[in-house]
UniProtKB/TrEMBL annotation, chain A:
This is 2-oxoglutarate ferredoxin oxidoreductase subunit beta. One of its GO terms (molecular function) is oxidoreductase activity, acting on the aldehyde or oxo group of donors, iron-sulfur protein as acceptor. SUPFAM superfamilies: Thiamin diphosphate-binding fold (THDP-binding) (SSF52518). GO terms for biological process: cellular respiration; small molecule metabolic process. Pfam families: TPP_enzyme_C. The keyword Oxidoreductase applies. It comes from the Bacteria. It comes from Ignavibacterium album (strain DSM 19864 / JCM 16511 / NBRC 101810 / Mat9-16).
From TrEMBL, chain B:
Coiled coil: none annotated. GO terms for biological process: response to oxidative stress. This is 2-oxoglutarate ferredoxin oxidoreductase subunit alpha. Keywords: Oxidoreductase. SUPFAM superfamilies: Pyruvate-ferredoxin oxidoreductase, PFOR, domain III (SSF53323), Thiamin diphosphate-binding fold (THDP-binding) (SSF52518), TK C-terminal domain-like (SSF52922). It comes from the Bacteria. Residues 24-213 form the Pyruvate/ketoisovalerate oxidoreductase catalytic domain.
Amino acid sequence: MANNVEVKEIKYTAKDFASDQEVRWCPGCGDYSILAQVQRTFPEIIDRPKENIVWVSGIGCSSRFPYYMNTYGFHGIHGRAPAIATGVKLANPNLSVWVASGDGDLLSIGGNHFIHACRKNIDLKILMFNNRIYGLTKGQYSPTSEKGKITKTTPYGSVDYPFNPPMLALGAEASFIARSIDRHPKHLQEMIRRAGLHKGTAFIEIFQNCNIFNDGAFSLLTEKDTKDDHVLELVHGQPMIFGKNKDKGIKLDGMTPMVVDLTTGKYSKDDLWVHDEFDPNPARTAILAMFDETPGFPTPIGVFRQITKETYDEGLFRQIEEVKKKKGEGDLEKILFSGNVWEVN
Amino acid sequence: METEKEKELLQLKEVTIRFAGDSGDGMQLTGTQFSETTAWVGNDLNTLPDYPAEIRAPAGTIYGVSGFQLHFSSEDIHTPGDQPDVLVAMNPAALKKNLPELKKGGMIIVNSDSFDIKNLNLAHYESNPLEDGTLDGYQVYQVPISSLTANALEGVKLSPKEVSRAKNFFALGLMYWLFNRPIDNTVKWIHEKFAKNPEYIEGNEKALRAGYNFGEMTELFTARYTVEPAKLPKGTYRSISGNEATALGFLAASVKSGLPLFLGSYPITPASEIIQYLSTYKNFGVKTFQAEDEIAGITTAIGASFAGNLAITSTSGPGLALKTEAIGLAVMTELPLVIIDVQRGGPSTGLPTKTEQADLLQAVCGRNGEAPVAVVAAATPSDCFNMAIEASRIAIKYMTPVILLTDGYIANGSEPWKIPHVNELPDIPVKFRTEKEGFYPYLRDENLARPWAIPGTPGLEHRIGGLEKSDIYGNVSYDPDNHHKMITLRAKKIKNIENDIPLLEVEGESSGELLVVGWGGTYGAIKEAVNKARAQGYKVSQAHFRYLNPFPKNTEQVLKSFRKVLIPEINLGQLARLIKSEFLIDVQQFNVVRGLPLRVADIVDQIIKTLGGNNGK
Ligand SMILES: Cc1ncc(C[n+]2csc(CCOP(=O)(O)OP(=O)(O)O)c2C)c(N)n1
Ligand code: SF4
């Protein structure tokens, strides 16, 4: 920054990011909190004039998000937000491009685009609002609904297994994977901030309550009397401790995780697994992601993993520059008249 | 072949040659090299590559035969020729498959080495056609191409397999000799292509020269043939295929509009070459994005268009079907976008490597809701260049998706192209909206186009998307009257394009008995048929559509100036249906859907039939 003569001081407030459109989610919907946390965080993390921010979405309740942000916005078609956002980013790499999507939108119809955005490490921030249900189409089960889920299309219970979103992102080698909860505003703000500062595909799964079609899906993680025993807040460099009285911990026995009691004197803080966000080895991140499927284990929230690698857009523009250097700026006349040409007189 | 004088070097006006062999025999390469050289010596030419969908079908089988036909002439020509005069058959299967189409009395050059029991069996020959009289009446030349190539390459450090593979160069050399073409072009090409493999250079060049010299030395051939250069308009020429011309057209549109080019695409035959060509122009800042599927191809392009690039997406029929919903999104968001559909045989996966014209209705009508888009079609390989520029111009000026239709035949086929100078190409003006004052996302200009206000522009932050928008303001709107108004406005915007495109031209008399009407890649076949019928005294004219939605303004008047209208198409009557419904006129149809270009002779017959024998003469 030292050489940058024109450092423009940008001072925004949350209000600057609110559009003039009336917000039309059901009263009590978790989406309101997510919108508020984004608007609250943006003044801190937006390092460029706000006309350089673009929100892209697919279709679903959550995908109405761009209308409510006073930035450039594109409400796309079902599932395609990551692809549309990719085009925006590659057309103009100076833009800060954000995706708002639902669990159905991103993982069902849009699963292909999601994994490929992660794989290519396109510099997008993807916020997935996970209510474990299809909201906009009024309550059918989604690819994150638990097995046995009774919904309008599964009156006898669904027989499919759900996706584990962090695991899916990890499998596609996303460079930033995090999770948070609509009812945990401070934590959610922190995750948004971290994603905003990351270069590359940043994926945040946000547990979101759909109080109309799947009310209480996350109540164990959000209600006062249960949350401490069911949520594990990941903090880099810190041992994994949870429980109302900070009385439980996670210990790694080889590659096997164990929940241990810290009150019996058998285990202490020093025996616990210390979280390393920057661990390039995906094995431990996968163990963490699998906690959700293991009875007795808490649900981790926080940054699961953050690694640094060249983004697709950086690679693309680097290559363009390299080819220009090698071949010289393109000369259309030369290209048209190249190959086996001959004259007719 | 029409010979003029009987002497050593026979002058021909035109020749059609078909190279045919196993799909591993390199026939496409041989054909392309022969075409390049033929273009370079100044003949007019037209080609038809015809290959199986399997990359390497089992060797020696009939379905594994790959062919390349080219028609060259000292006069203006427009088709690859109905029937070849000369067949080069590298194996029995190639002979079996192609003999029925060879002209009576035509010339056959066979690789006699390949006519062994195994290959004869694979081709389902019960006896050897070289010996059993099957080929009586043809001029047959048996050349042991495999062994002659092997002899010529003795001492070259190549494996027996590599030596065998060089036989196509032997055949090419022989044909160069027979048709009096220079070998230098191909020698140069070999040196460039195999720069990293000196043994390949040596082997292929030796095989080429051996073939040429064999022609000279052998007593097999008593004559050579020559086709004089065609009298083309003055200028600088190159041979160009449709896909290459399409790619160059978009490169030109990018330069002439000053917009960076973005192509989002998923490979599909016969459109893949467009992304392949454009990928080589990185130094023009061209961004080619090989997406995970067609939907991502078009939606990345829509995103790029929103952000201010000249955005295009290329595909073939099945891919266009997948892009349908996204095209509707581009219609609603009123963003410029060009969708190239290189049509192939359908439905479904159909005949992937063959040509067809059956996506017209899909292009014009194939979307949910009232979703009008502009549709244009290229008529010849080189016309792909013009229409790519036109499609880009219309998309930008009217803020609309435009579908550009080409087809497998013109995409793969090539012809000489008089290269335009960059300064002769039209500029494509672009105005991004930048003034804050009075900005609304769905405000319209005199063309009914809304402003292109791209992210990064201060003060113009706005939201668009696929939900219906209120007129002018662009907020989401469910108002019934607003919806009707927006539907009508979008339709009118497309209809207005008719004021901005060339009128439909009539070749021949501008009124009379019969007008033959076509669109897209059948131009050449129809033109040649109409010319032939006229030469026989029939009163017939031609009109060809390159703009299909909207139609040119004078379309109705042109059609109604003739007593009869005949529409030949490689589909079951899609243009005919559009014409009938739009202008309420009766038309005659001629529809043959064989995966191949229409045959000139068939169209001539149809013209005569439509005119009722002598009627119209
Ligand atoms: C091509 C297509 N198929 C189906 C739909 C119907 N549809 C709209 S939203 C949706 C699911 C939304 O669920 P989710 O992404 O979880 O978002 P939520 O509404 O719960 O926020 C479906 C199936 C559509 N709009 N387009
Ligand atoms: S249906 Fe559910 S997800 Fe959609 S707005 Fe209402 S509460 Fe929110």
